[in-house]
Amino acid sequence: MKELALILVSTVLVNNFVLVRFLGLCPFMGVSRKLQTAAGMALATTFVLTFSSVCSYLVQAWLLAPLGLEYLRTISFILVIAAVVQFTEMIVRRTSPLLYQVLGIYLPLITTNCAVLGVALLNVQESHGFLQSMVYGFGAAVGFSLVLVMFAGVRERVAAADVPAPFRGASIALITAGLMSLAFLGFAGLVKG
Amino acid sequence: MITAIAAIAGLALVFGLVLGYAAVRFRREADPVADQVDALLPQTQCGQCGFAGCRPYAEAIAAGEADINLCPPGGQATMRSLADLLDREPKPLAPEHGVEKPRLVAVIDEDVCIGCTLCIQACPVDAILGAGKQMHTVIASECTGCELCLPPCPVDCIDMVPEPVTLKSWRWPKPGEFVFAAADAGRTSPPAAAAPRKEPVPSSEAEG
Q1: ipTM above 0.90, yes or no
Q2: H helix or E strand, kind and range, residue A163
C-alpha cells in the first residue's frame, strides 16, 4: 500500500511526465489554450492512460513474455493504445457530444501522446505488477491533468496580458512551461531515497 | 517468426472484435427523424414554439417531448405534414404560441429609426443591415417574418407588412382562398387581444 502511494506521489509530482520527463508535450502545448478544453482533454487522457497502462501490462504479461516476443513490445503497445483511444472516442461521442466536439482532433491524437506509450514501456522497464501498473498509469494521468489544467489557467491569463511583441504566441507559452518545469523540479526533494 | 505474426494478428483480431462490439453497443444515432422534422419546419428561427430555433424544436418533436402544433409560422400545413410524417393525430395550433398569419416581412420606418442596433441583435437570420447611430433597413428577401425585432425596438419603427407580390412570387389564388382569407380577417380581430404578440396591421401602408 505504501509503495502504491509512493508511486502515485512520484508520478504526479516528483517525476511528473510532462514537466520533469518531458513526455506528452504536444497536447500540453496544443490543448492548453482554454481551460474547458484542457479539462476535457485531461479527463480523456486520464481514462486512456490508466486503461492502456493496464491493458499493455496484460499484453506484456500474458502474451509477449510467455511467447518470448519482447521485441514486439513497442508495436503491440501502440496497437493497444490505438484500440483504447478508439474505444474512448466511442464512449465520449456517445456520452457527451459536446465534449466530443470540443476535443475534436485531439481525441484521436491521444494515440500519439508519447506519455501514453512512455508509461506502458516504463511499466515493463521497472517490472511493475498489475496493481502497480494501474497506479503508475493513473498517477501519470493525474500529473498530466494537473499540469495541463494549471498551464491552461496560466495561458488564459497570459492571453490577456501585455506581452512584449517578440515573446507573443508560442514563445511566451514555452517560457511559461519552462518556468513551471523549474517549479516542478523543486518536488525532487519531496521524497528521499 | 510464425508465433510473432500469429500473436500480433491475434491481438489485432481481439481488439477488432472489441471495437466492433463497442461500435454497435455505443452507436450514436444521428436521429434521422429530427432531420426530417427539421426539413418540414419553416426555418424562421422565431422561437414562438418556446425552443431556441427550428432545429431544437425538431429534436424535441423527434424525442417526443414537444407537441406538433406549436409552430405558428408553419401553420396548419406544417402541422398536418408533421402529423403525416410522425403518424400522430392532427390537432389545431396551440393559440398560446401565436396565431397563423400570412407571411409578413419587417419594414423599418427609416425616418423614425434612431440606429440603436437592438433589432440587429435580435434578428436570428441577420436580415437587418445597419450600424450604430446609422439608419437600419431590412433585407426583405432574407426576412422570415418572425417578428423578433419588434419588441426590442425602442421607437416602434418596425412594421410587419405582407410580402410584396412580385413577378416571382405571384400565383393564382387557390380555390376558396379568398373566402378563407376573408373569414380569417374577420376572425383575427377578436382573438388578437389574446395573442401575446403584437398583431400586424394589415393595411399598415395606409397608416403611414
Answers
A1: no
A2: none
